[in-house]
């Protein structure tokens, strides 16, 4: 339902409710705050009512207390993934070397760099649109590369990475069509589809991770609760020491795979 340019907040809420937006009131306020004119407001509301993700309509996502640019066609960072960043920050030693694989908008790496003493930040993604977006969000904080997983990273990072964030896709292929249209239609499938059991990309990352991690460095990945036992075995098979961390508040499951030698949390601060 189109919104007249002079419509009050209540009319925007009604339009969003009719479009099926669960948090219509909150979204309406954000749209009104973002629009620079009545005509722009009408356009924003129409785009949201047509099914575009709110973050793509606004042009940004709120993640870990900061706003990050999220362009159309780029994976939207989920609030539950703030738990992964928080756990990574707790593990990161001083002057750490951080790599953000499958970085999407670059929000994870940038958020971690903002709350930790990172000496180096490197991020990469296979999607050109994501790489352009990540470069805007990361800016001078680090370097962003385009390519598949570890392939574009500088060889000089081998054996030096303290924290390896890998927000890999983990939705099983057969379940992708069950996702909300916001994700299924407007986010790249490569950022969602994790293969038969959802763990294909995680297996590839885990297999290569030991060659890139510093002694005692950690790989952090997200998975669903039903995948946790299999994911633990994936990390163990790669030679990493696995742990499972859960946030009931955010419905998040994070797996940490620590490289050989002393555990990350016991490492001396550099």
Q: Got a strand count?
A: 9
Main sheet: strand order: 5-4-3-6-7-9-8
Class based on secondary structure composition and strand pairing: alpha/beta
- Order of secondary-structure elements: HHHHEEHEHEHEEHHEHEE
The number of helical segments is 10
Given as residue ranges, the uncertain stretches (5+ residues, pLDDT < 50) are 1-6, 263-270
Mean pLDDT: 89
| Multimerization status | single chain
Shape: globular
Write down the Rg: 20 Å
Largest sheet: 7 strands, mixed
Structure description:
The structure is a single chain. The protein has 270 residues and is of the alpha/beta class. The chain has ten helices and nine strands. It has helices at 9-18, 24-34, 38-49, 54-58, 82-91, 107-115, 128-138, 181-186, 200-212, 228-237, and strands at 60-63, 66-69, 96-101, 118-125, 143-146, 161-166, 213-223, 241-247, 252-258. The strands form two sheets. It has a seven-stranded mixed beta sheet, with helices on both faces. Strands 1-2 form a two-stranded antiparallel ribbon. Strand 4, helix 7 (128-138) and strand 5 form a beta-alpha-beta unit. Helix 5 (82-91) packs across helix 6. The longest helix has 13 residues, at 200-212. The chain starts with 8 loop residues before the first helix and ends in a 12-residue tail after the last strand.
């Amino acid at each position: 339902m189109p919104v007249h340019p002079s419509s009050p907040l209540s009319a925007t809420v009604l339009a969003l409710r009719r479009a099926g937006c669960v948090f219509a009131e909150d979204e309406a306020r954000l749209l009104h705050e973002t629009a620079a004119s009545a005509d722009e407001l009408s356009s924003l509301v129409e785009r949201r009512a047509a099914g575009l993700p709110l973050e793509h309509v606004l042009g940004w996502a709120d993640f870990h207390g900061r706003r990050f640019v999220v362009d159309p066609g780029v994976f939207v960072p989920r609030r539950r993934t703030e738990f992964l960043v928080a756990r990574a920050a707790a593990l990161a030693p001083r002057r750490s070397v951080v790599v953000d694989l499958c970085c999407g908008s670059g929000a994870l790496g940038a958020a971690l760099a903002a709350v930790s003493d990172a000496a180096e930040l490197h991020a990469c993604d296979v999607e050109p649109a994501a790489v352009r977006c990540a470069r805007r969000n990361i800016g001078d904080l680090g370097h962003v590369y385009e390519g598949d997983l570890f392939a574009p990273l500088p060889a000089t990072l081998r054996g030096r990475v303290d924290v390896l964030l890998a927000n890999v896709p983990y939705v099983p292929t057969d379940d992708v069509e069950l996702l909300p249209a916001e994700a299924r239609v407007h986010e790249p499938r490569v950022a969602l589809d994790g293969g038969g059991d959802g763990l294909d990309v995680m297996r590839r990352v885990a297999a290569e991770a030991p060659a890139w991690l510093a002694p005692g460095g950690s790989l952090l990945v997200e998975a669903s609760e039903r995948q946790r036992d299999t994911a633990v075995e994936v990390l163990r098979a790669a030679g990493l020491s696995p742990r499972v961390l859960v946030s009931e508040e955010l419905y998040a499951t994070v797996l940490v795979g620590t490289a050989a030698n002393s555990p990350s949390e016991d490492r001396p601060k550099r």
